[in-house]
UniProtKB/TrEMBL annotation:
GO terms for molecular function: protein folding chaperone; unfolded protein binding. It comes from the Bacteria. InterPro entries: Heat_shock_Hsp33, Heat_shock_Hsp33_C, Heat_shock_Hsp33_N, Hsp33_helix_hairpin_bin_dom_sf. This is Molecular chaperone Hsp33. GO terms for biological process: protein refolding. One of its GO terms (cellular component) is cytoplasm. It comes from Shinella granuli. Keywords: Chaperone, Cytoplasm, Disulfide bond, Redox-active center, Zinc.
Amino acid sequence: MMAENALKLGEPGFAGDDHVLPFQVEGLDVRGRAVQLGPMLDGILGRHDYPAPVARLLAEAITLTVLLGTSLKFEGKLIVQTKGDGPVDLLVADFAAPENVRAYARFDQAALDAAIAAGTTEPHELLGKGILAFTIDQGAHTQRYQGIVPLDGHTLEEIAGVYFRQSEQIPTKVRLGVAELYDRDAAGKARHRWRAGGMVAQFLPQAPERMRQADLPGGDGEEAGHKIADDDNWAEAKAMVETIDADELTDPNVGTERLLFRLFHERGVRVYQPQQVFDRCSCSREKLKGVLAGLSAEEIAHTADDKGEIAVTCEFCSTTYRFEAAEVLPQ
């Protein structure tokens, strides 16, 4: 990142909700991104009206996706997805570069009710056994890249850490937090809102041998006949990030800049132009009409209602599109 793009911490109007803030700590060879999500997140979760345990899980997935997706250097997509055998069997968060986010969750209501009654609503209990997948799609005429790891961890934060250790092989620390905010609007009416926050910090020194980790394949610490200890800079950075309280990630009175300053001011933290993200779905009537046009006449007849209409609801944004069966019948 060019130094001239750096901004001073505390500039008026800087960052704020729904803006991903890139940062660099030169004294520790660390780069990363941090964010607090407010209206964008609340819009996605509010339209689906998920039960609180499901909403929390999806909020974490959205936060992780936003932090990683805003680092894409091309016009493409990052899709973060969990598939498991728990009550919440599917989470999908989709980031279309440079700024659009959509997401949804699928769950078994009866199984979720039983989990709530039994008090087994920790993330690993709701997700069950399965996989976490990161898919990068650069568009037509390109091959998708997909990294998959098992749901091996008690939280999505821990599971994402497994992915970075095994797939990216870049020393990475992830922090995620979600909160429900109860307050009153300008008219004094009580309201409920969702907030989330997160940080991804990565150790990126100029000397590549300093990036070896003991838990990576080939990173058992043996190099040229002597032991490679965990780098002091990275150990310090990890320790700092681990001090973050979940409330600090989501509290609008703390803010992303103030949190970064608390963590790294002694090491010279530098922040860059924030990237705003938006609650925007890529569905359209034209796209769905094209999908329906690929069905056979028998399938269309079976899908249409008594009035000869076909209703299709987008799982991401809950928008319903209606078509006359005659519109999509094969010619």
